[in-house]
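Listing S7. Sequence submitted for prediction.
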Amino acid sequence: MSIPEKPWYETAFGEDYLRRYAHRDEDEARHGVALLARQGDIARGRRVLDLCCGAGRHLGPLDTLGGWSMGGDLSMALLREATATHPVVRLDMRHLPFLNESFAVVSNFFTAFGYFDEDEENLSVFAEVHRVLEKGGWFFLDFMNVVPVIRELEGKGGRDEGETVDGQGRRWHVTRLLTRGPRVEKKMVSLESPCGSSISESVRLFREMELVEGLNKVGFVVQKRYGSYLGDDFDEVSSPRLILVACKAK
């Protein structure tokens, strides 16, 4: 009997993830948290959960808000990087290991959403975030703007992005493909390994209204939309990000 393959999100966030995404650094994290800090007092001096925190690069900047922050992630390899300075817990975002109304704010940075095969699974995350937030609490969701991604890849056999070099100087060949869902499938093939080892990623491309409807369905009200970490207004055609600030209304 063959052993079923693990889902991509259980294998892609290993010890080399930080080297592959070295350009996603502390400066970018500070910009993201600075936008959260601009939302008045929603996070200042309060309990914050950084959901899918990875190695914890947002936790340090979140500390500057004067409250108490912790991180949660599925990847033990990344959590080991974060445990030295912050409380973290291993978790599955579909089943959060916290009591009801445990946090005032939940943040979810850098497209750490849309990983699962079924829309119902992905959108169930919103219900769990809603459950662990206190009434009047806030959800800060940082997703990519999928419209330019779909426009770039639609009708093509994929996009060959050529060679890239990671933070350790290793070379990878990168391709992206638009598949049904729609989803964007990214594959990185090592040019250093004689066997051509590869890493795959797959993200469901939710449009703005799909996310807003999913949030509304479980009791959130979206208060603000941004198109970048600088706080630009969201523009579906050109914005690089889709950042939603939603309040738990009931």
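Caption to Listing S7: primary sequence and predicted structure tokens for the chain studied. The mean pLDDT is 91. The longest strand covers residues 133-144.
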